[in-house]
Amino acid sequence: MRAIAILVIVAVLGFFGYQYTAKGRGPAEAVGVLTGATAAAEQAAAEAAAAQAAAEAAAAEAEAQAAAEAEAAAQAAAEAEAAAQAAAEAEAAAQAEAEAAAVAEAEAQAAIEAAAAEAEAAAAAELDAARAAAEEEAAAIAAAAEAEAQAAEAAAQEAAAEAAAAAEAAEAEVAEEAAAVAEEATEAAEEVAEEAAAVAEEAAAEADTAADSAMGAVAELLTTDGFDSDKVMELVEGSDLSVLQKTTITSALNAAKDNPELLEAALEQLKGMLGM
Description:
Layout: H1 2-21, H2 27-169, H3 172-221, H4 229-238, H5 243-256, H6 260-274
Helix pairs in contact: 1-2, 2-3, 2-6, 4-5, 5-6
């Protein structure tokens, strides 16, 4: 604004000097000429001031708009950075959850396989023990029968010896009677031996039948048609399965007892645990 005023003053002084020196006019004449020029100069100065004010206002508005746009851009960049960080954290959390799920699945599979192997080994041990017990019982019965047969044979031999001694001292009729007694004793001993052998064989057959019946009953119980929840739970609780195995198979059976397809899979798993 000061520069404009200085320009106006210089212009006025130049005008008066020009009018005085070049035109030969006095101050009054120069003022008359200046009146129109002054008005024009004032109008030009006013227009210049208005233009400068408009330029300053436009510059201020442009600066404010640029500052607002810069602030909005900074805020958008901050929001984008926060969103990217949140996405990275979410991705890391999802990856961690996936890895944890994979580890849990591998541990569960290993536990199931270990439980199945343990159940199979336990079932095989039980079966071997049952067979050994049956064989021991059959051997004991056979030994008892053999002892009875030997005792009977010894008695028959003793009776035969006595009969022979009596025959030597007695008549032929007594000898014949003694021989008949000896023969009867031998037959009796043979009958006793045969009966003992039959008893031993029957006991062994009964032991095998009992073992087969028990296994057959268990096998029938572990089918979808013969399934009895209470009996199967008693079978699981009475088995040599570990606590983890019992808990796992009990949960599977409870969840599948009303679904034939799931029940069949659970029963097959239990059979595998029991080595059947």
